[in-house]
Design goal:
heterodimer, A: mainly alpha, MetI-like fold, B: mainly alpha, 9 helices, about 80% helix
């Protein structure tokens, strides 16, 4: 752990004994805390076999969890593709030489980053039908909302990525006679995309978690099907929530591991990891916690 | 704008945003305390504490906030009988604060930990070389530098927290997004104006906050 070297030396014999004692003390405390939680659950009868038994039945998985998970993954995948397109478009727009492209693109990105995703989903789901005189499906409300928000976040990440590419790259491209759009398409965007790949993948975690907002507009995703609908039938809301949370944690941990692997690989290949992208402001906004 | 000329609607709008601010305020304090504590766990020399910190971060950062809030209401309150207030609204409010805090604490923890990581090891080594004790190193050398590096990410966490507060509407607290939904449903002719007012209020609150934290972080940045 890199932090341990910042804060303290490698432990000597005395420090090792002290750490061992502290480990035991806090270990006992932790076990006591977990036991207390277990006892509280037990008191409420939450360890009853009948509440957990549904998860051993195939129908629970084929009728509730898998269909929900499929919708969650499908919404996340669609949202991701659209967000990438939106992100690239607006990142390039914000870097435009023309103020009438740059200013609106900047305003749109700033606006969608500041508006809560749920507010956007409500507007699309409840408001837009009044405007177009027809219904909007829960799926598209969620996906469009996700696209506008995550696309704006990605636009900022891309912009930082493009700006971090050494100026010599663009200058060399202009020197060999490329046009502005060629420089952007052939030189800047591909390099930025490769350098930003880990950031893009970790944004996928945010997007995947945000699909759970679909529950609020009755989109049949994992939270809706696996927790709400299942527990309506079986009355096991705590058990169902724990199982579904574990599924989310497993998937997101996999995606995070992929992002970390990509990050190490990009560094090893000697890519200059964009400084702005790792600087606190941009980085934190990219990995901004949303619902 | 005729929608907001009606005093009942105006009151609903104001109380919606008041709930958002109250949720943000209480959760920010709790999440900051909890997050700093977890960060201390994660950088401590005691493996058990490091494990607790890491487990907390991995569990809550990878679970959707909607599920956490859902669990706070249907799990903690309805099933396990945890009641935080006798008043229905107050109870939902505090359940929401619990959910927002445990979720946001994971992000605060990571921000603080990465802040500590930005301090070059040479700083602490030099401090130890001149004979400062562990706590002196921490207090005089490491934390002042880490604190500055942490301002910008904490600002982003605060902004995200304020936006996430809308999710507490799921468990029946009539906050801004629920008010907007109700107003849209009863005023189909003024949909755009209603959305513009609600989204505009969030933008007016959060965009300046973002710039403020950016400015502050720049001002406090350690020149290296």
């Amino acid at each position: 752990m890199s932090t341990s070297t910042v804060l303290y030396d490698h432990p000597g014999p005395r420090a090792r004994v002290r750490n061992a004692v502290l480990s035991v003390v806090f270990g006992v405390g932790l076990v006591a805390l977990l036991w207390w939680v277990y006892a509280k659950f037990d008191q409420a009868g939450q360890w009853e076999g009948s509440l957990w038994q549904p998860f051993t039945e195939a129908s629970t998985w084929t009728q509730f969890i898998w269909p929900g998970l499929r919708q969650t993954l499908f919404a996340a995948a669609t949202g991701m593709v659209l967000s990438l397109a939106f992100g690239i478009l607006f990142a390039v727009g914000r870097l435009s030489d023309h103020w009438w492209v740059r200013v609106p693109a900047g305003a749109i990105v700033e606006f969608f980053r500041a508006v809560p995703l749920l507010l956007m989903i409500f507007f699309i789901f409840y408001g837009v039908p009044f405007l177009i005189q027809g219904p909007v499906s829960a799926f598209w409300s969620v996906v469009v909302g996700l696209t506008l928000y995550n696309g704006s976040v990605l636009a900022e990440a891309f912009r930082a990525g493009i700006r971090s590419i050494p100026a010599g790259q663009a200058e060399a491209a202009y020197a060999v006679g490329m046009r502005k759009s060629q420089v952007m398409q052939l030189i800047l965007v591909p390099q930025a995309a490769r350098a930003m790949l880990p950031v893009i993948v970790s944004q996928l975690v945010v997007l995947l978690k945000d699909t759970a907002l679909g529950y609020i507009v009755a989109f049949p995703e994992l939270l809706q099907r696996g927790v709400n609908d299942l527990s309506a039938n079986r009355g096991n809301v705590v058990a169902a929530a724990i199982v579904v949370a574990l599924i989310y944690i497993a998937i997101n941990s996999l995606v995070t591991a992929l992002a970390n692997w990509l990050d190490r690989r990009t560094r090893r290949r000697g890519f200059r990891v964009p400084k702005q992208a790792t600087a606190p402001r941009d980085d934190a906004q990219v990995t901004e916690p949303q619902g | 704008m005729h929608v907001f000329a009606d005093p009942t609607n105006l009151d609903a709008y104001l109380s919606g945003f008041l709930w958002i601010l109250k949720l943000t305020g209480a959760s920010a304090v709790l999440a900051l305390v909890l997050g700093v504590l977890l960060a201390a766990f994660r950088v401590s020399p005691v493996p058990v504490l490091r494990g607790v910190g890491a487990a907390w971060v991995n569990i809550f950062r990878n679970t959707p906030l909607t599920l956490i809030i859902f669990f706070c209401y249907f799990g903690l309150f309805t099933t396990l009988g945890l009641t935080l207030s006798d008043d229905l609204d107050q109870n939902n409010y505090w359940l929401g604060v619990v959910g927002l805090s445990v979720y946001t604490a994971a992000f605060v923890c990571e921000a603080v930990r990465s802040g500590i990581n930005t301090v070059p090891p040479g700083q602490a080594e030099a401090a130890r070389a001149i004979g400062l004790t562990f706590f002196q190193t921490l207090r005089i050398v490491v934390l002042p530098q880490a604190g500055r590096a942490v301002v910008a990410p904490l600002g982003s966490v605060l902004i995200a927290l304020c936006k996430n507060a809308t999710i507490v509407g799921t468990i029946g607290l009539i906050e801004a997004s629920s008010v907007m939904k109700d107003l849209i449903n009863s005023n189909g002719d003024a949909v755009i104006a209603i959305f513009a007012v609600f989204a505009g209020t969030f933008a007016a609150l959060l965009i300046p906050t973002g710039y403020f934290f950016g400015w502050l972080a720049n001002r406090l940045a350690v020149k290296r």
